[in-house]
């Protein structure tokens, strides 16, 4: 990955710091079970076969990391706020001149949504880096030595990595409805059933729908989403077994109508994540293709070497000002029209997608989701001013 030059002549002394911490599994369970004591929660965790001791230890590491950060900032006379609430963090982001996500890659992705320009720096601290993926956070040694991080910043011993991000512009109706976390989404729309014993009458059920339609009609039909995608934007039906039909236009070229399991539009950062797993091939597949094409049977060593080269080629620099889209499980009947074929994986700087979905969603970095149903259009592009300023230490 390419880094901007080491800034030995530019000491950085933040004045206001926002620490955005994730909820540990134990804290989440406390909220979900307010009537249970901590011991009762841990007992229930053990009953279902999970490691209650590790969950408690993970919680302790998270709390200790938050306390250490607070102690260091207080010692350095830096104003700070540490919160686990997304609404409070959103309000504090403009106030802060440095954002520090405390947690794994998911926490970093969520924190990146709070930053809407390329000027505010961010770095992540992962208290559990030894047992989780650690693409975005500082090396694990800094998780227990936070003071050394600020010493390096004051000495100018850091680098900046401008991670490219994707902007999304949508056109359609209902664009200003409250977004939701992907895990809040019901699997089907028919989970609420109305019968004779239901206190809610059919009239009361229909009223919110009518209000929603009126509100949608009064809203603008175009919206630039305030959240940039650091990893990827995914479009598809919420019910995984249901395919979606979409019209895809690459740059300003000809459009294609396709039917698939969805489309993933990723950045260089995202090329190391879900996008890579979508495209990765098994050793058996590589061996079979080579044998069909050349008649040669590869040895295990040759297969692994070829597989490594292929998997490595899927990734590209995180500051690259281009996107790559990947169409998942495209139906062959819609792949080609008028003797022209729609490729299932292409690098580009602009992409337009029109949905013909039924209960579809547009999901940003696996966390923020908006409805993306029939007739809604989304345009994705990538520019330098959308980038995220990531502080990197070695």
UniProtKB/TrEMBL annotation:
The keyword NAD applies. SUPFAM superfamilies: NAD kinase/diacylglycerol kinase-like. It is an enzyme of class 2 (transferase). Keywords: Kinase, NAD, NADP, Transferase. Its EC number is 2.7.1.23. It comes from the Eukaryota. Belongs to the NAD kinase family. This is NAD(+) kinase. It comes from Xylocopa violacea.
């Amino acid at each position: 990955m390419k880094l901007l030059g080491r800034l030995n002549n530019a000491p950085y002394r933040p004045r206001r710091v926002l620490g955005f911490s994730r909820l540990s599994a134990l804290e989440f369970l406390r909220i979900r079970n307010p009537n249970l004591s901590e011991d009762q929660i841990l007992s229930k965790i053990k009953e279902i076969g999970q490691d209650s001791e590790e969950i408690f230890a993970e919680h302790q590491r998270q709390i200790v990391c938050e306390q250490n950060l607070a102690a260091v900032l207080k010692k350095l006379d830096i104003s700070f706020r540490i919160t686990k609430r997304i609404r409070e963090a959103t309000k504090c982001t403009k106030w802060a001149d440095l954002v520090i996500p405390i947690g794994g890659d998911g926490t970093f992705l969520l924190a990146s949504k709070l930053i809407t320009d390329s000027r505010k720096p961010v770095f992540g601290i992962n208290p559990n880096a030894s047992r989780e993926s650690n693409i975005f956070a500082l090396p694990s040694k800094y998780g227990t030595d936070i003071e050394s991080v600020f010493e390096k910043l004051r000495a100018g011993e850091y680098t900046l990595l401008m991670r490219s991000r994707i902007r999304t512009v949508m056109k359609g109706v209902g664009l200003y409805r409250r977004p939701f976390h992907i895990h809040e989404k019901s699997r089907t729309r028919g989970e609420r059933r109305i019968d004779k014993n239901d206190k809610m009458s059919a009239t009361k059920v229909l009223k919110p729908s009518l209000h929603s339609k009126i509100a949608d009609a009064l809203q603008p039909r175009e919206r630039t989403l305030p959240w940039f995608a650091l990893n990827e934007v995914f479009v598809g039906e919420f019910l995984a077994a249901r395919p979606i039909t979409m019209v895809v236009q690459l740059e300003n070229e000809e459009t294609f109508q396709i039917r698939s399991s969805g489309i993933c539009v990723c950045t260089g950062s995202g090329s190391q994540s879900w996008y890579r797993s979508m495209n990765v091939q098994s050793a058996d597949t590589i061996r079979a293709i080579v044998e069909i094409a050349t008649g040669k049977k590869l040895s295990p060593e040759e297969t692994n070497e070829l597989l490594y080269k292929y998997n490595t080629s899927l990734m590209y620099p995180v500051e690259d000002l281009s996107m790559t889209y990947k169409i998942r499980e495209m139906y062959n009947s819609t792949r080609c029209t008028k003797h022209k074929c729609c490729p299932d994986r292409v690098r580009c700087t602009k992409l337009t997608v029109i949905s013909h979905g039924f209960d579809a969603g547009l999901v940003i970095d696996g966390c923020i989701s908006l409805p993306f149903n029939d007739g809604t259009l989304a345009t994705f592009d990538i520019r330098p001013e959308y980038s995220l300023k990531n502080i990197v230490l070695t």
